[in-house]
Amino acid sequence: HIDPVIEALRDRIDVVVHALAFNSRFLDDLLTRLEENVRSEEVVPKQIVFTEAELDRLQTEVRAVELPADVRRRLEFFTSQFEFCEAAGEQWEYKTKDTARLAGVEWHTLALQDTGRDRIKDLGCQTRNGLSVRVLMTLIIYAKAIAYFRGNAAVDLEDLRQILPYVLHDKLTPDPEAPFFDQPGHAVFRVDRVGWLRQLWDASCAEYERLDLDRNDPVGELGAEFRRGLEGLSEREVRARLVRIERLIGESGKGRKLYGHLYDDLLKLKYLHQRYTNYLRWLQTQ
């Protein structure tokens, strides 16, 4: 087990990039640096040494880079794969790997209580944890930075694909006993963390496309409708929206095994139902 203090400190390391092994064919260059006492800071190009004011401006411009809706939705879908753990709690909100971790339960004990989901297809079965808010914020800002330095005004999927393994390298913990790693050609991913994380992203995007979520995302539509505000909504319209939410909740749980993205959808629907119910009660007091 990892000490909780060490785990908390790890969460504050933004990016991990492993240096490549030294190539012995460059030993003569190393010898030159040694004999001439060349210091590392002396060979840094002046073009990438910034003043404090330049760094402040750079940060402002990076944050202004757009994260388009279609890219954000794929990131949401990817993120939703990992936290759900049905056996971890009785109450819906606590069916998470974080609940299990805080309880100190042995991971293999929970894995044995699998609910019949396809443990090879389910990306969440490959990890022992989900992603923290801090990690997601880091991932977004670094994706914006990649786009910025590529001269683009918006983040694209390739920006996320390239930076994601380095942000999540020490954050998303693989479960080496997961059946995915026993599949032909997958054993290498027990060691190659960058390759494993990149294939996770690719598999998530492929599943997103298979589900056609760009065109068929009723939960997203309900969320967008709610974000437009409640002001001026009649009691009749609120009741109609509640019926739509309840119908969607019923359809989501009908004869389907729960996966991470469905779990997040159901929690979002519950949130929307609570907000509309509270608003309806307020309307009835006016």
What does this structure look like?
The chain is mostly helical. The chain has 2 domains: 1-214, Magnesium chelatase subunit I, C-Terminal domain (Helicase, Ruva Protein, domain 3), CATH 1.10.8.80; 218-285, no CATH class. It has 12 helices and no strands. Helix 7 packs across helix 8, helix 8 (157-167) packs antiparallel against helix 9 and helix 11 runs antiparallel to helix 12 (260-285). The longest helix has 26 residues, at 260-285. The chain is globular, with a radius of gyration of 23 Å. It starts with a helix and ends with a helix. The model has no long low-confidence stretch (mean pLDDT 91).
Pick out its properties.
12 helices; 2 domains; globular; 53% helix; Helicase, Ruva Protein, domain 3
Structure summarized in a few sentences:
Helices cover 53% and strands 0% of the residues.
Secondary structure elements and their pairing?
Blueprint (H helix, E strand, L loop, with lengths): L3 H7 L16 H9 L16 H12 L5 H11 L17 H7 L3 H5 L21 H17 L7 H11 L25 H18 L7 H10 L7 H18 L7 H26 L1
| Main beta-sheet strand count, sense and barrel state | none
What fraction of the residues are assigned to beta strands by DSSP? under 5%
N-to-C order of helices and strands:
HHHHHHHHHHHH
What is the count of β-strands?
Answer: 0
Q: How many H/I helical runs? A: 12
Q: What is the CA-based Rg, rounded?
A: 23 Å
CATH top level of the largest domain is Mainly Alpha
What is the total number of structural domains? 2
